Amino acid sequence: MMKFFLISVALLLLLLSGCGTQPQKQEYKVSTPDWVKNPNLNGKRGAIGVASRTYDQKESSKRKLAISRALDELTLQQGVKVQLSMTKRDVVNNDVASTHMDTKSSYDASSTVTAHIQGAWENPLTGELFIWMVMD
């Protein structure tokens, strides 16, 4: 009977000692591309456009916004005057709602700015999309 009691106490102690420990916290490191912090990497003339979630939650809208911001930055580097306006309209017609977004941009430039997308990266923690545009 004494052996049974000692074995029961030992098992109970083992069970209780396991309950007090916390699981190891996993560290999640994000590997950011070098061009995110240095868009002029390797002597290239570039700019970064960043976009988070958009009004319509579409990936294509987020991409367009990031590209637009990168192009605006490139044109500003060239000394070009940029005007960008965005208008959002919410329409409800017969209990059906829709959202419309109109964008207008104008550039006052004596020379043309041409660029291409050199890289794209989405931060897995924040969902931000980074687009790297480089001058041609």
Describe the structure.
This protein is of the alpha+beta class and 136 residues long. The protein has a domain at 34-89 and 102-136: Dodecin subunit-like (2-Layer Sandwich). The protein has helices spanning 2-19, 34-37, 59-77, and strands at residues 46-51, 81-93, 96-108, 115-122, 129-135. The strands form 2 sheets. A 3-stranded antiparallel beta sheet has the order 1-5-4. It has a two-stranded antiparallel sheet with strand order 2-3. The longest helix has 19 residues, at 59-77. The termini are far apart. The mean pLDDT is 81.
Annotation keywords:
136 residues; alpha+beta; Dodecin subunit-like; 3-stranded antiparallel β-sheet; two-stranded antiparallel sheet; 3 helices; elongated
How is the topology of this model organized?
Blueprint: H1 2-19, H2 34-37, E1 46-51, H3 59-77, E2 81-93, E3 96-108, E4 115-122, E5 129-135
Antiparallel strand pairs: 1-5, 2-3, 4-5
Shape: elongated
CATH third-level topology of the domain at 34-89 and 102-136: Dodecin subunit-like
Strand order of the largest sheet: 1-5-4
Percent of residues in β-strands:
25-35%
Distance between the termini: 87 Å
Averaged pLDDT: 81
Runs with pLDDT <50, length 5+? none
Radius of gyration: 27 Å
**What is the H/E order?**
HHEHEEEE
Largest sheet: 3 strands, antiparallel
CATH architecture of the domain at 34-89 and 102-136: 2-Layer Sandwich
The assigned structural class equals alpha+beta
In CATH's first tier, which class of the domain at 34-89 and 102-136 applies?
A: Alpha Beta
By DSSP, the count of extended strands is 5
Fraction of residues in H or I helices: 25-40%
Number of contiguous helices = 3
